Every structure is written in structure tokens, then in C-alpha cells.
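Hi R.,

Here's the chain you asked about this morning:
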Amino acid sequence: QLQLVESGGGLVQPGGSLRLSCAGSGITLDYYAIGWFRQAPGKEREGVSCISASGGSTNYADSVKGRFTISRDNAKNTVYLQMNSLKPEDTAVYYCAADIAPWAPWLLSRPREYDYWGQGTQVTVSS
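And here is the predicted structure, written out as C-alpha cells:
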């Protein structure tokens, strides 16, 4: 069964850090661009970051540039999202998604391009 499984979410104080993981099960992530998206209550899903299959290209939402870092370890079939200097407005359910199509920076803003999605992990930033 083909799955993306997110982990690493939780409750953190403002200014804290979390690292999210997106692991492939039944799917080899090497061939896929991976995107991280988030959705807060009452808001639309928004792109946070994405990375090419090789890891050589990345893109970030303006709201997280300089604070979040996306990376991948294809040997571990896992993509990571390191989140530093977290703010209350980062609170959301975070999803990873995989896209077999060739890399393009606009993948950040087009969730419908993605072929597979994880179930999401909750991130709550609060004191």
C-alpha cells in the first residue's frame, strides 16, 4: 500500500523548533518532488516549501523563508522540514505530498499537481 506518513508535529512555544518528517511507504520518493503544505482552521491550504527529486532545487513561502529548511535523504526515503523560530501563526496541520512531474518552483502554489498526500501532522505554537 502506497503511503506518505508525516511525523514530528506537536506543541511548541513561540521561538521553538520542530522537525517534521515525511516517510514513504510502498513508494520510492527518489522519483518525486515533495511539497509541504499546511492548513489552519478556517483557512485554505497553503504551500510552505517544496523540493525537487534530486534535492537540488527548493522553494519556500515568503512567510517561512529564513526560518524553515526543507531537505531530503533518499537513502532513508524521507523528506524533512526543519522549522525554527516558530510563531503562533505557524499553527496548522502540516501535510506532505509527492509529485511525479518534473520539478518547477510553482509546485509550491499548486497542490492539485500532487499525486499522493499524507494524513497530516498537527503543529501548535502557543505559550
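One quick note: The chain has no helices and eleven strands.

Cheers,
M.
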